[in-house]
Design goal:
Blueprint: H1 2-5, E1 17-21, H2 27-42, E2 44-50, H3 58-65, H4 69-74, E3 81-87, H5 97-109, E4 113-119, H6 123-131, H7 152-161, H8 166-169, H9 181-190, H10 203-215, H11 228-243, H12 257-263, H13 285-298, H14 301-305, H15 313-327, H16 332-349, H17 356-362, H18 368-396, E5 398-399, E6 403-404, H19 406-418, H20 420-424, H21 428-446, H22 455-465, H23 472-479, H24 487-496
Parallel strand pairs: 1-4, 2-3, 3-4
Antiparallel strand pairs: 5-6
Length: about 500
């Protein structure tokens, strides 16, 4: 809607602009809407490309265009403002960094304003790529504008349009789903809302329901004759080709599967518009991630064999969530096995991989029992893994390093309160990280619409008031109690003042 488009006011600048956001959050659709607005009201002209849909190298692209990029961008229509939108910026993690850099450099040299839309997990790589050709004027100058998931009023509008989502929106640990338009779309198309159960949800739960209903067609043969196993195997084979782009394709056994998957919108349609990619492609990142997660569930070793590409992190987390969910309520043995696998990956391909099992566990629909089972591992080695878990929450689920998502953080906060005496005995760096996490959680909670009394916040309040010595972090936490500021806390604040 117009209110959401008006948020992207920074498009009025002429500098390169990066628009990061969560996967499936609708950032591409929003950006295209803003470009339409600029075209209609201000006479702007925009060229739109998707980095993933282009040939892999600049030479291949210029060969297909029959001209250099500089000549192509130099010949774009004359307008008061000329813009180039590059969607799918996260493809830099798939080996397309140089391609993005060449396209961006040619566009900027031709006087076009550059706009890059990317998933948040690729922001650092995209920003570095653009910075090498168009350095920021100052070290702290921003060229990014975060495109958040839907706000509460927007969630309400979605629920009013699709009442079947009301039950999900009413669950605090499931409401995140309705904030992600891409997931809303696939849940509605698959009619999976009723199959998501009650209570909290994680992406792994959505994966299971969508895969059963949309991919396996509820175990029914489709009108085209494609079988559930055939469709499943076809997507798994396409996922394998994504992981191993230079490998020899294996035959798709079910001859009806690919056409059936295209018909259901899981694969892109074939036609002249896709002449640059002479192969079947997933309809979007979400379908690709679901398919790769399904492949990893059947053979997790393929991730190592594929040299653990960074773009597969989300699919890996989905696969981990599915494995942990299968082992509930006592999933600590499975988590340890996963941690061993991913620690080996981290040793070879970067420490980020060691975060995946902890992230998967902390974001389960209800992680309470799983976190409690993992507590001995978290506090071993003077809290090394606890510090990792806190870092994951701060980096991945804390907006602007300030506001921790209250429901994502709730399970860990409750765990820390349950074991506060043990936490106090850990080394200073860990206890400091714990205090900062609790403050970020309180800040996130304070921004929740209709914020009322909260039991975990009351427990945190009492823990702060019971401390022998009030720290600066404890003072900040008392100031963030909101409706849970009782007489005792108020009196403590007055004395400190």
């Amino acid at each position: 809607g117009k209110a959401r488009r008006d948020r992207v006011i920074v498009l009025q600048t002429g500098d390169p602009l990066i628009l990061p956001g969560p996967p499936d959050g609708g950032k591409s659709a929003l950006t295209l809407s803003v470009l339409d607005l600029l075209a209609n009201e201000r006479g702007a002209e925009a060229t739109c490309l998707n980095l993933r849909d282009l040939p892999a190298t600049t030479a291949e692209l210029e060969h297909l265009l029959g001209s250099t990029l500089a000549e192509v961008f130099g010949a774009t229509s004359v307008a008061q403002r000329r813009m180039l939108l590059i969607d799918g910026g996260e493809a830099v993690l798939e080996g397309r960094r140089r391609l993005l850099q060449d396209i961006a450099a040619a566009a900027i040299d031709a006087g076009l304003q550059l706009v890059v839309v990317t998933r948040g997990d690729a922001l650092a790589a995209v920003d570095q790529t653009i910075d090498e050709i168009a350095p920021k004027a100052e070290a702290d100058s921003g060229r990014r504008h975060d495109v958040p998931a839907l706000a509460d009023d927007e969630v309400q509008a979605v629920v009013e349009a699709f009442p079947v989502l009301q039950r999900i929106a009413n669950q605090p640990r499931a409401r995140w789903l309705v904030r992600r338009l891409g997931l809303v779309d696939v849940v509605l198309r698959s009619e999976a809302a009723d199959g998501l159960g009650t209570g909290g949800l994680c992406e792994g739960d959505v994966f299971r329901a969508v895969w059963f209903r949309l991919v396996r067609h509820q175990e029914q043969v489709t009108d085209s004759g494609a079988t559930p196993d055939g469709r499943d195997a076809a997507l798994a084979e396409l996922a394998r080709r994504e992981l191993f782009p230079g490998s020899e394709p294996r035959p798709i056994v079910d001859v009806h599967a690919l056409a059936s998957l295209r018909s259901d919108g899981l694969l892109l349609p074939l036609g002249e518009g896709l002449a640059w990619t002479a192969r079947d492609s997933f309809a979007d990142d979400l379908v690709r991630d679901l398919a790769v997660a399904r492949l990893l569930l059947s053979d997790h070793s393929q991730l190592r064999d594929a040299t653990a590409p960074r773009w597969a992190l989300r699919a890996a987390r989905l696969a981990c969530q599915a494995r942990l969910a299968d082992s509930l309520p006592d999933c600590e043995g499975e988590r340890r096995a996963l941690q061993s696998e991913y620690s080996d990956l981290a040793a070879a391909y970067g420490d980020r991989w060691a975060d995946v099992p902890w992230e998967a566990l902390a974001t389960l629909g209800d992680p309470t029992q799983a976190l409690e089972g993992a507590w001995p591992s978290l506090v071993a080695d003077d809290g090394a893994e606890l510090q990792r878990l806190i870092r994951v929450l701060k980096q991945r689920y804390t907006e602007g390093a300030t506001f921790l998502d209250p429901e994502t953080g709730r399970g860990v906060i409750s765990l820390l309160l349950d074991h506060r005496d043990e936490v106090a005995s850990l080394r200073g760096a860990v206890t400091k990280a714990v205090d900062q996490l609790m403050t970020a959680w309180l800040r996130g909670l304070s921004r929740r619409s209709g914020d009322g009394p909260d039991q975990a916040r009351q427990r945190l309040r009492d823990a702060v008031l019971d401390m022998d010595r009030m720290s600066d972090e404890g003072l900040a936490q008392l100031a963030l109690l909101g409706p849970d500021l009782d007489d005792r806390a108020a009196e403590s604040l007055r004395k400190l003042a």
